[in-house]
Design goal:
There is one protein chain. The protein has helices at residues 3-28, 31-47, 49-52, 56-76, 78-81, 97-111, 115-126, 131-138, 142-162. The protein is an all-alpha fold. The chain has two domains: 3-81, Rna Polymerase Sigma Factor, Chain: A, CATH 1.10.1740; 97-162, Orthogonal Bundle (Arc Repressor Mutant, subunit A), CATH 1.10.10. It is built from nine helices and no strands. The longest helix is centred in the N-terminal third of the chain and has 26 residues, at 3-28.
């Protein structure tokens, strides 16, 4: 490229690059993409000698058209269609299927217990009460609470073994 072409290309850059860059940012919303498009536009101007010596208004119009077409081509490209933009990656969610089945099995096993055993177990384990609180709530002696807990848990364990949950 002759020295005059270098000077003409430098002048083309100095006169129009900032305006083309703002135009591309307006079209794409991305300063990084605008840098690439302006660079490609200037490269095409350099490869097209007829633009270098043109009237400044004609050269600017040509550069805006080239930049617009580059933006459109990029938007239509296969790379862009298959690219996820500004979407966070999907978060892994624990599969709660096993937990759901375990819950159903425990509910069934509890339903098979006597009402006295079920009441003591449910209040102790799910209500977080101690034997003294259970005795007071149920109006029975503490020893009876302990006995119902012991035999109720044995019956629950047997019911869960029958369902294949506990060995």
């Amino acid at each position: 490229m002759p020295i005059d072409d270098h000077a003409a290309l430098r002048e083309l850059h100095d006169r129009h690059a900032a305006a083309v860059w703002r135009y591309v940012v307006h079209l794409t919303g991305s300063p990084a993409n605008a840098d690439d498009v302006v660079q490609e536009t200037l490269l095409r101007a350099w490869r097209s000698p007829r633009i270098i010596g043109q009237d400044p208004a004609t050269a600017r119009s040509w550069m805006f058209t080239v930049a617009r077409n580059l933006v459109i081509d990029d938007a239509r490209s296969a790379r862009r269609r298959h690219e996820l933009v500004d979407e966070p990656p999907e978060l892994a969610v624990d599969d709660r299927t096993d937990q759901l089945f375990d819950t159903l099995l425990v509910e069934e096993a509890l339903a098979g217990l006597s009402a006295d055993h079920r009441a003591v177990i449910a209040r102790a384990y799910f209500g977080g009460r101690n034997t003294a609180e259970l005795a007071s709530e149920l109006g029975i002696p503490e020893g009876t609470v302990k006995s119902r807990l012991h035999y109720g848990l044995r019956a629950l364990r047997l019911a869960l073994q029958e369902r294949g949950v506990v060995r």
